[in-house]
Amino acid sequence: MALIDTHCHLDVEEFDADRPEVIVRARAAGVTGIVVPAIHAAGWSGLIGLCAAEPDLYPALGLHPVYLDQHRDAHRAQLERRIAETRPVAVGEIGLDFYLRELDRARQQALFEAQLAIARTAGLPVLIHARKSHDQVLATLRRIRVPGGIAHAFSGSLEQARQYVDLGFLLGFGGMLTFERSRKIRILAQALPIEAIVLETDAPDLTVVSHRGERNSPEYLPDVLAALSEVRGEDPAALAEATSRNARELLGLD
């Protein structure tokens, strides 16, 4: 079974000690593609270099709302240039985080809108981070239309999920799906059409239940597939094929 991890921060320091080994183990587990989203401008060069060196790693470039204090106005123009030069598969990770109250909402909103405009001009999908902010994210996406994207680590309502789908978005499900207590997420994964679902790890964060308390890794993506198969009562091979096809078509992967 060929799986695509649509959201994995493989470039961050948590993987510095054993990154090549992690990639080898992920491939052995059936992960044939990994999308690596950026979080701040300082990481763009390393991320681009990592993905250029590995044929099954795909870069996304953006400015993550949680790292707002590291972003500068100049980074917006730099992002636009980098995207034109490197042509990543998506603009991301971008969005709004209203869970962390210390993050200025107005600055987040301005940054989000600027990056959506960049994505629209470039004709690229976006990778969305939304915590306690789905309604505001959706309202913004209706005003600034982009070529679809992925609502990463989705945990909103079924109605919000349908609104994303209507805007051309897919919903990303990861390690939380493997926890039986994640009833809301498991009900969502069961209720949504398979055409709306992609798989992810968000490694090194949000690990699967079998590795609770450990660093998450793309090699654990089969655990997410197994959980999806369990909640939907469907064949894992068919789900692997469908979710990977969804990712390839949206992101234009080889």
Structural overview:
The chain is α/β, with parallel strands linked by helices and 254 residues long. The protein has a single domain (3-251), classed as Metal-dependent hydrolases (TIM Barrel). The chain is 42% helix and 16% strand. It has an eight-stranded parallel beta sheet with strand order 1-2-3-4-5-6-7-8, sandwiched between helices. It starts with a strand and ends with a helix. The mean pLDDT is 98.
The CATH topology is TIM Barrel
Number of helices: 9
User: Helix content range of the residues, please?
Assistant: 40-55%
Shape: globular
Mean pLDDT: 98
When the domains are counted, the total is 1
CATH architecture: Alpha-Beta Barrel
Beta-sheet strand percentage?
15-25%
State the major sheet. 8 strands, parallel
Q: Spell out the CATH superfamily.
A: Metal-dependent hydrolases
Task: State the separation between the terminal residues, measured CA to CA.
Answer: 17 Å
Q: What is the level 1 CATH name?
A: Alpha Beta
| Rg, nearest Å | 17 Å
| Spatial strand arrangement across the major sheet | 1-2-3-4-5-6-7-8
Helix/strand layout:
Blueprint: E1 3-5, H1 19-28, E2 31-37, H2 44-53, E3 57-61, H3 74-86, E4 90-97, H4 105-122, E5 126-131, H5 134-143, E6 149-151, H6 158-166, E7 169-173, H7 183-191, E8 197-199, H8 221-232, H9 236-251
Helix pairs in contact: 3-4
Entry keywords:
254 residues; alpha/beta; TIM Barrel; 8 strands; 42% helix
